[in-house]
């Protein structure tokens, strides 16, 4: 194997390994963001339910005061 071919093979191997590492890191990051996003959506859903409960309570107090 010539010296030039040896270096070319080494560089290609390093680039391939770098791409694999970047791909795996991207997958891990994406799954973390997805998990964080789902947690945020759940928290938002809880806040909306609490707000609906507060509005229903305020309507009940208003109806009671009006009666």
What does the model show?
It is a single chain. The protein is mainly α and 67 residues long. The chain is 96% helix and 0% strand. It contains one helix and no strands. It is rod-shaped and about 95 Å long.
Main traits of this protein?
67 residues; mainly alpha; 1 helix; 96% helix
3D shape: rod-shaped
Report the β-strand fraction as a percent range.
Answer: under 5%
Helix proportion: over 70%
What sequence of helices (H) and strands (E) makes up the elements? H
Using only C-alpha atoms, the radius of gyration works out to 29 Å
Class of secondary structure makeup: mainly alpha
What is the arithmetic mean of pLDDT? 84
End-to-end Cα distance: 96 Å
| Low-confidence residue ranges | none
Number of strands: 0
Determine the number of helices (DSSP H or I, runs of at least 4 residues).
Answer: 1
Main β-sheet description: none
Summarize the model shown:
With 67 residues, the chain is mostly helical. It is built from 1 helix and no strands. It has one helix at residues 3-66.
Question: Which helices and strands occur, and which strands form pairs?
Answer:
Blueprint: H1 3-66
